[in-house]
């Protein structure tokens, strides 16, 4: 399966979180997980937009979906 999220930004993200060094495997793993979570959030957001009678997914749909998927307040 082709990656949508590139690996180089994953290296930067892990380093920004405080890692001194980042393995290629960890960057690939983070990319895979973020894609999976992102797809779940996007699917929920699409459902919210359709429920509201819209074809367009708005930022608020994403925010609500993220709260649901990630268990945030």
What's the layout of helices and strands?
Blueprint: H1 7-16, H2 24-51, H3 59-70
Helix pairs in contact: 1-2, 2-3
Brief write-up:
The chain is mainly alpha-helical and 73 residues long. Helix content is 68%, strand content 0%. It has three helices and no strands.
Core attributes:
73 residues; Histone, subunit A; 68% helix; mainly alpha
Describe the structure.
The chain is elongated and about 45 Å long. The chain has helices at 7-16, 24-51, 59-70. The chain contains 3 helices and no strands. The chain has one domain: Histone, subunit A (Orthogonal Bundle). The model has no long low-confidence stretch (mean pLDDT 95). With 73 residues, the protein is mainly alpha-helical.
